[in-house]
Amino acid sequence: MKKWNQANIIQQLSKKELTFHLVTTQLVLLTISVLLGIFLFKDFSAFFNLFRFDSSIYLIGITNGVLIVLLDLIFMKVLPDRFYDDGGINERIFQDRSIMEIIGLTILIAFSEEILFRGVIQTHFGIIAASIIFALVHIRYWGHWFLILNIVILSFWIGIVYEWSNHHLLTTISMHFIIDLLLGIAMKYRMKR
To answer: Residue 113: which of 174, 59, 42, 188 has the closest Cα?
Structure first.
């Protein structure tokens, strides 16, 4: 009997089905954010204050995002392939997409995940709770010690940037977006070689 895990299931999905499930997951995270936010924030202005505009904030997020991508790409070069083997899930997500599709998906992912994990959970329960829950949600990494360690460190790094920026959500959204976008594009072109 064949063991079905997330990687096996994803390999069976068409691009359209995979996109549907990916977008649905992000919409579920946004819905959870809204529901939790209704109960945890005293009013709408307290939530929307997390989105105040400051151009220097983007530089912090983008710089940290690029630094993480550079570190990840170096590790991918020097470590054996098995260290980054998630069963081909990330490659499957990005390999057959246009740059515009990757941009759209990574904006949605960064926006929905950062609103929930930093905007709602970290704001109300702290960096440890947000980072642990962030790692738990990334189930595809659980079976691999290096990937789970990588995602836990990444989550704490994003959480520290959120604290350092004085709870400025656009900082971590831009950081998360840059990480996912650049690594998604790298995976797309690595698969073509």
So the answer is: 174
Candidates 97, 127, 95, 130; CA nearest to 113 is 130
Instruction: Tell me the two tokens of residue 109.
Output: 């992912």
Structure tokens at 145: 């010690």
Domain ranges of the chain: 12-192
Instruction: Tell me which residue of 191, 183, 192 sits closest to 72, measured CA to CA.
Output: 183
* pLDDT tens, residue by residue, 3-62: 446 667 777 778 888 889 899 999 999 999 999 999 999 998 999 989 988 888 889 999
Tokens (6 digits) for 81: 């392939």
| Residue 93 to residue 91: CA distance in whole angstroms | 5
Between the CA of residue 52 and those of 56, 63, 163, 179, what are the distances in Å?
12, 19, 15, 22
